[in-house]
Amino acid sequence: MVENNSTTNHSHHLDFDAKEDPQDSASPIPIDSKYYDDDGHPKRTGNVWTTSSHIITAVIGSGVLSLSWAMAQMGWIAGPVGMIFFSIITWYTSSILAECYRTGDPNTGRRNYTFMDSISSILGGFHVMCCGIVQYSNLFGTAIGYTIAASISMIAIKKSTCIRSSDGKDPCHGSGNPYMIFFGIVQIFVSQIPDFDKMWWLSILASVMSFTYSIIGLALGVAKLTENRAFKGSLAGVSIETVTVAEKTWGFFQALGNIAFAYSFSMILIEIQDTIKNPPSEVKTMKKAAKISIAVTTTFYLLCGGMGYAAFGDDAPGNLLTGFGTYNPFRLIDIANAAIVIHLVGGYQIFAQPLFAYFEKEISKRWAIVDKEYKIPIPGFGHHYNLNVFRLVWRTAFVIVTTFIAMLIPFFNDVLGVIGAMGFWPLTVYYPVEMYITQRKIPKWSRKWILLEMMSAFCFIVTVAALIGSVVGILINLKQYKTFSLSY
């Protein structure tokens, strides 16, 4: 190994001789605007379509698979209304959060590179610690949820192949843990990509995969509906004749958490916005991209959730694709499950990279030695890989821990509900609203202030209900589950 004396640049800034941040300096150092942005960062290249791709990758994830089940808990009235409610709230709060990318003037003010940077520069103080705990816990939980979802899809492919090869004679039971471990190993390698803005290709690939399995799931739902020759389901969802009132209530609340999870991406919106070129202004591009992305995903959600519920009724499975069995059309189902796995490889990194960057940045402030890199020659390519030992160890440990927890509590719908509920109000609603109020200097008790706070309060109630329902679901499942015994 050849030691590289240069260090990892976590802040993405140029290494100015004066050691000044161009945004902080009273006398900014001249920057060649042809190659660098106003903060010394190499020219950003993101546009509406790449930004939309990032958002769709973050939004359309494993959550879409649980929407038919959520519809079954809520019924034909509350289900679609719930999805539209979450989409409107997410779109609006994304729009006001986009205005917090820069502190002060939304077009020319100081840039904030992460969601936490925005909190720090606009709200500061106690909010920074609280938001950090919630945001990074949510990102951590999302990694766990994606590991569970990916393993379920790999299990489905394995079981389908096994049953076909044995002509249905072998029930093909086995442990699901090896598939979680395999997914974890893949993530260990992929997680060594050092910077979020170097992952554009992974994001686009993941977006294509998300459309692939969403369309297949929708098509299979339509086919199943045609086969049934009737719409299943009811206006109120699962009947209290088949479950207790308490189970119905908890299921309804848990469904809210599942829908909230399906729309969660606000915590990485600022990071995505930091990849956008200027001009036009980042705010304008992000607002347009958010509108396009949320409109597309909501359409998919309503179609996939609705068709799945119409096809299976109150018996809609927690994971839509598992409801179609392991036979015909087995190849199409296998393709959909493979697309899910590929998508979740990218989705995992979309959510994990901000956490990686934050932790590494904080550690490097205390111990500069962790930035040391070593040049590792790549045979046959004439290039080298910059190996950072700390990054290798820390990111590997992160993946191992998330994989371990996923194996410990592999409850797909319950885990998604908890993650969605934990992140919805604080990250999607409360902090964007509070930052917007502060940024725009909206007077207290003014009409706009009251409306914003009322929206925040209502969403808080929804979040608490969803969290309670999901936690109850986990507790119920834990009573019936043996540790590390996920099987198929």
3D architecture notes:
The structure is a single chain. The protein is built from 13 helices and 5 strands. Helix 4 crosses helix 11. By secondary structure, the protein is mainly alpha-helical. It has a 3-stranded antiparallel β-sheet with strand order 1-4-5. A two-stranded antiparallel ribbon has the order 2-3.
Number of strands: 5
Task: Give the CA-CA distance, first to last residue.
Answer: 45 Å
Contiguous helical run count: 13
Report strand order across the widest sheet: 1-4-5
GO molecular function: symporter activity
Membrane topology: Multi-pass membrane protein
Biased composition (Basic and acidic residues): 12-22
Region (Disordered): 1-39
In brief:
Its main location: membrane. The protein is mainly alpha-helical.
List keywords for this structure.
488 residues; mainly alpha; globular; disordered N terminus; symport; symporter activity; membrane
Present the secondary structure layout:
Elements: E1 2-7, H1 48-59, H2 67-98, E2 102-103, E3 110-111, H3 115-122, H4 126-165, H5 177-190, H6 200-228, H7 245-262, H8 269-273, H9 282-312, H10 330-366, E4 372-378, E5 383-388, H11 389-408, H12 412-440, H13 447-479
Antiparallel strand pairs: 1-4, 2-3, 4-5
Membrane topology: Multi-pass membrane protein
Protein name: Amino acid transporter transmembrane domain-containing protein
Biased composition (Basic and acidic residues): 12-22
